[in-house]
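ARCHIVE CARD
SHELF: 3
SLOT: left
DATA:
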Amino acid sequence: MFVFNMETVLFIIMIIAAFALCYAATLYGSVKKESSGNERMTEISQFIHEGAMAFLAREYKIIIIFAIVVAILLTALGFVPSLKGIDGVGWSGAVCFLVGALFSGLAGFIGMKAATKANVRTAEAARANGMPSALHVAFNGGSVLGICVVGFGLFGLTGLFLLFSYIYGSVEEAVPVVAGYSLGCSMIALFARVGGGIYTKAADVGADLVGKVEAGIPEDDPRNPAVIADNVGDNVGDIAGMGSDLNESYVGSLVSCIALGLTVVINGESFGMQATLFPFVIAGAGIIAAVLAQGFVRMRKWENPQRALNIATYVATIIELLSAMAASLWLFGTTGPFFSVATGLIVGMLLGKIAEIYTSEDYRKVREIASESETGHATNIISGFSVGMESTALTVIVLVLGITLAYLFTGMYGIGLGAVGMLSTCGITVSVDAYGPISDNAGGIAEMSDLDPGVRKITDHLDSVGNTTAAIGKGFCIGSAAFTALAMIVAFAQAAGLETVSLLEPGVLVALLFGAMLPFYFTALTIRSVGRAANKMIENVRAQFKNDPGILAGTSKPNYIECVDISTRAALHEMIVPGLIALLSPILVGLFLGTEGLGGMLLGGLVSAIMLAVFMANAGGAWDNAKKYIESGEHGGKGSEAHKAAVTGDTVGDPFKDTAGPAMDILIKLMSVIALIMAPVLAQMTPWLNFLFH
């Protein structure tokens, strides 16, 4: 009887996800109906839109090749007799993988399309109707991405789960297959986050160093050839990349949780079916919570954007908590699972608050960096490094408490529920985060279109709030990645038949060290990639200024297309090696050191990646807002020595917070999901370095 009910509930959840996608389409339509302003504004907006779409089209061509190769490999492995029925292997795994890649890519594509339509309309709304109208347009544009992330993620996973439950005649057999869906989402996220991050920071660094520092022209000045590429970068990195990142976490948390749910026993009674269904119910309730919460932003004319966005987040959290309580009592007859979900939700909010404390100019840490900038570039860098490193302490304490509590309430399954709980309000979290880059772009368009300075003042205020929400979003991404990756590692251990991973085994210790090294090496590659791409951008901008003096004089137009093309080619070229390292590392470690060694590698990678991600995200955000704090008139304001030092700090922090830091989240989740898929295969094999184990 419960199986029938389960199928019915899952079908209802699919309808909720489909409703979310229809709602996103409605939001997109409402954004397009807004006025796009004068001819100059429309022209600049079109430059940004075409540049973003061109990058995404070229990036997706490369991704399609990777996707086809992986799908063929998964299908081919299904013909190996000993591997039939293994997680994600065979035609079924290939189908799930391709659907995951497709839906994740669609979410990023639609979200970025909406963002590039919303930016100019936000600027025009600010010009015509002031702050409240600009906030609504920017938030609606960001909400398209937020709702698409959860809508596509849940619709695809639920549909595939129902399909393969029917094909194989068993829920237990469908669970391993849908791991391929998570792998597809992870691959898109890796390339979108890394490629988009390299693109946006190459353009940003190039624009700042030559335009602001060398030429002494303002930010977003139309005379700067790199300014359009910089605005395009806001969309490819902070919209498409961020959306794919959280889509991956969202799907990964659900997949790991349903895998853990099959073996759940509470008070001596098996609750496998209920525990498998519960994450889907929580995710469905989260979509409803996000849609309802967004209404609170639109129901009145807010003059304080931060207050509006905070209230929306709190409303979504309260609705989700009430839903989780009801679902827990309905399915389990106890509140233990609810408390695990609640722990994840609370941890997510606390991590966001910690990120805000260390990155917002309203708090002491950012102001200290601004003050230190008065004594030069070196002290600015030292202060920023200190703030970033210090921020790891509170973050880890909160994560440790959250993991411990989630485990106490419902065991290992509780850790998975913590991840699901944290990500259940992803629809509103992504909406709030995506609003920031749209506001930033709106400010750039206002500057380049010579609109009244009051318009730029409004968009700058929206952007300042957006910087804080972005930092909160990055804290949220890190926390969710930690919970999700840990849940996946636990699921991997179960699939591999591992009860313990002993540090006394030389093979485990070797793998642990290798895993701890990988995030550092990955970071080095991505930061170096930004540096190389930025060098090419700087050379081009300098050459344009030198060859055509009319550009700085304002009598001739710079060649924006060349700069967009430089960032595009550099990003696509540079993302391949880091991508291959992330994909191949768990496979090679698994072959050489087996399941126990792979478990050690995953744990080592998880620990060092979290530390690096927190450090880089918060240091970069603090440097950025310290610069903006000085630009507001403090410590000498724009053009002062303190401002020049702050620009250097912000330039160093840019690849930290927008490229390498976010990539850590992807790295640990991707390696974990590959390990989860490979676990049964490796469990049947003797590791090549078997002599390292007793």
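SLOT: right
DATA:
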Amino acid sequence: MAEEDINLEEALADGEGHTLASYVQSAYGRSEDARYDQEKRWITSYRNYRGLYGSDNQFTESEKSQVFIKVTKTKVMAAYGQITDVLFAGQRFPIGISSTREPEGVAESVHFDPNEKSAPEMQSPYGFPGDGNELQPGDTAKSLGDRIGEAAKKALGLELKEGPGLVPTAITFHPADIGAKKMEKRILDQLEESSASKHLRSAAFEMALFGTGVLKGPFAVDKEYPMWEENEEGKVVYNPKMVTMPKLEFVSVWNFYPDPDAKNMEQAEYVVQRHKLSNSDLRGLKKRPFFDSEAIDECIEMGTNYVRKWWETQVEDEDSKSYSVDRFEVFEYWGNIDRELAEDAGLDIPDEYEDLDTVQINAWVGNGKILRLAINPFVPNRIPYFAAPYELNPYNFYGVGLAENMSDTQQLMNGFMRMAVDNAVLAGNLIFEIDETNLVPGQDLELYPGKIFRRQGGAPGQALFATSYPNVSNQNMQMFDKARVLSDEATGIPSFSHGQTGVTGTGRTAAGISMLMGAAQLSIKSVIKNIDDYLLQPLGEAFYAFNQQFDYDEEIKGDIEVKARGTESLMRNEVRSQRLIQLMQIGSSPTLAPFIKFPVILREIAHAFDLDAEKFVNDEREAVRQAEVMKAAGMMPQGPAQQAPQEQQPKAPEGGGVPAGNVTGTGNANIGAATPVQPEMPEFSGQSPVFPKGLQ
């Protein structure tokens, strides 16, 4: 039982001002005791990764070799590399925002026809960033004007009509999509400011090694942006700008203590995070909101209290007799507590919680002092931690890592390799027998090159006999290879995928390699799916809720949904990109073009090529503007009427059918290849064609 595991009844009777602190320490101790067996498995995984034998490994006198073959490290790094390659294939954080299929409170689509009224030729119907004419997604008002933005109507001088345009010259756009795109850019920018990619990679590494990766956020912090300004005296001085923004951070699984009765974060009643803080770290907490400066000073005056856990000496590779360090141990608690206990601790309960028996709080406790106490600010209430398993264990909060899956095969490989080395050493040296009766007494019997023995009797060669030891190391290495194959099956990571040569059996053929790679991708796919479900999806929803609650920019709000894009990256391959290109070619026919969403296809092609669609593909507004610029510069491709005569001559395809130049088709003939719609043609509208809802 841990020292901190205090009975709740005892905690409540501990004295005024310490009941909440004792409660937090009790919750921490309960979680610590519950995960003890899990910690032992983590230590085994860590040792196998580092190539270290524990004190429980006892070697006999005959076992001279203590070699450790670090196949676990190779497998873990291979899995970690595949995970990060998939997650960041598109060179962006794998979270997306899109409008719902039926947006509420905002117009699904609006259009106008520039031929109905005169309008500036270069004027975009959407407005351009910074010109004050951007389309506003609106809010929940019922009128069309409120839902499309008055600024856009005034700038255009045109009457906007709800629904898609039905004539070739009409331009249609979607206010809900614009709001979703702005929200996505806002969240991705916030994630980039938090170095979210780095934190996600750290979580992915602990997933592969220990079985669980943890992220924390978003929570508000003040970030300092360097700025230099000229003062009244004309001198340039440093005047940083402080901006409050949401932050995301990685939390090591070693410092993460969830509710032991929960199987996932949705079931968790509380979470305790253990902090190891220096004196300056503790004083720095005074700058953060709701921290008690007096309590922090009292905590510091009481002195450092951090004591290493049993596992820390293993992880940190420290062989020290003293387990204490010059640091403070601070517990951060998120979860539900009894309302009366919170009030006794001095928490001001808002009126909306009057009818509740429990409240959700955030408390920091150090040296028995309450350093911070505040109501959970998030609406709806949520604990800001996300834990994703490498391999889901339905009966435990923590997942199963790759290192644990191959623990047995790692022991086998070490054992066979030690036997092979010891046997090779014996076989490579002669074993001598010495007949001391034929030698002069009192001689040193140690053998070394140039050694001279004095003989007093017997025939020459009878005093010393040399014998060789049989070499069976090949048999041991065969067993080592079998153990390695078992490790491939246990982890789903084939050896050749991380540079292992000499693959035998099925893996020697192209079909066999393809099969093994398919199996490896399937294994990683399940891991990525866990990351999507338990990490990225709830994390994206948390950032969305944060902006909905604390960001007052109405342009980013609307009826939108969050999508995790981890698994989506597994579909980015050559086959998919080729099919998308073929679909685009089919849609080049004017007859089929209205049924094809060209902007969507272009973005999907960019994703298939592992490119950031935001950087390389224009949206509808940018497409209209770019078309006008290219038209004015004479850079547009020639239309059908301007092509050379020989280019217009139809070619009969093999196997019959209509010539390639037959765009529309006649009689019973099939539709052949067509010429893409050009910007100067009447069918071109600067964006994907739209059609009546009845045809959608």
